[in-house]
Design a protein that fits this description.
CATH class: Mainly Alpha
Number of domains: 1
GO biological process, one term: phosphate ion transport
GO cellular component, one term: cytoplasm
CATH superfamily: Phosphate transport system protein phou homolog 2, domain 2
Largest sheet: none
Structural class: mainly alpha
Order of helices and strands: HHHHHHH
Radius of gyration: 18 Å
CATH topology: Methane Monooxygenase Hydroxylase, Chain G, domain 1
Subunit structure: Homodimer.
Strand content: under 5%
Helix content: over 70%
Family: Belongs to the PhoU family.
Keywords: Cytoplasm, Phosphate transport, Transport
Number of helices: 7
Distance between the termini: 38 Å
CATH architecture: Up-down Bundle
Length: 229
């Protein structure tokens, strides 16, 4: 029975890594589409999100079947529950990449990035891609050094997110209401993408160390109940 259980865990981990890889591709394409007004690339991200959703569902089904058949307890139970929540966060990250792509598509043939904010969004985009790639390695290797890298990158994303709001709400900002909305939404999507990665990293740290200090993020848990955020 233990061999069957461990095989199920391995299958779950492999599927989570696969989803994370697809999320990395999605955010990479979405940020390029957003920065360059590339509607074809944006359409690819939107179309490919279905695959992320399907894989996330397959993880959930496998995890639930494992709970029912193996009835794990203690740490084994926490691993399965964490896998379910990780799958949900990855699915949300895919949705956020899709939302960024939708912004790019909605403003075509113009670019969605308001003047004066391109460099900020380029930095945020690169950091989100970096976070996604690091998350893949964390899920694959369980090396906690990657968790620290994700947290550090997310701190910078949060700082950039704050500067976007400061700029669009300042009297010096030359854009109209639509530019303010686009900038606020895009910045929020980038920021939430990083937050979900941090949430996953905290769960992996907890499973490896038993330390739940700072692992419970109330904001993440509330937002997880809202589709697509």
């Amino acid at each position: 029975m233990r061999e069957v259980f461990h095989q199920a865990l391995e299958d779950i981990q492999n599927r989570l890594v696969e989803i994370a890889e697809l999320v990395t591709v999605a955010i990479d394409k979405a940020t390029i589409a957003f920065e360059n007004g590339d509607v074809a690339l944006a359409e690819e991200v939107i179309a490919d999100d279905v695959r992320i959703d399907e894989l996330a569902l397959s993880v959930d089904e496998l995890a639930i079947d494992t709970l029912a058949m193996q009835q794990p307890v203690a740490r084994d139970l926490r691993i399965i529950v964490s896998a379910l929540r990780t799958s949900a966060s990855l699915e949300r990250m895919g949705d956020l990449a899709e939302h960024i792509a939708q912004l790019a598509r909605s403003r075509f043939p113009e670019r969605a990035i308001p003047k004066g904010l391109k460099s900020t969004f380029v930095k945020m985009g690169k950091l989100d891609v970096e976070v996604a790639r690091t998350l893949v390695e964390l899920l694959r290797t369980q090396d906690l050094a990657y968790a620290a890298q994700i947290r550090d990158a997310d701190d910078v994303i949060d700082e950039l997110h704050a500067t976007v709001y400061e700029k669009v709400l300042s009297e010096a900002f030359a854009g109209d209401a639509s530019h303010v909305i686009d900038a606020a939404l895009a910045s929020r999507y980038h920021e939430r993408f990083g937050d979900h990665a941090v949430s996953i990293a905290k769960k992996i740290v907890y499973l490896a160390t038993g330390d739940w200090t700072g692992s419970a993020d109330p904001e993440i848990e509330v937002v997880d109940r809202t589709p697509g955020v």
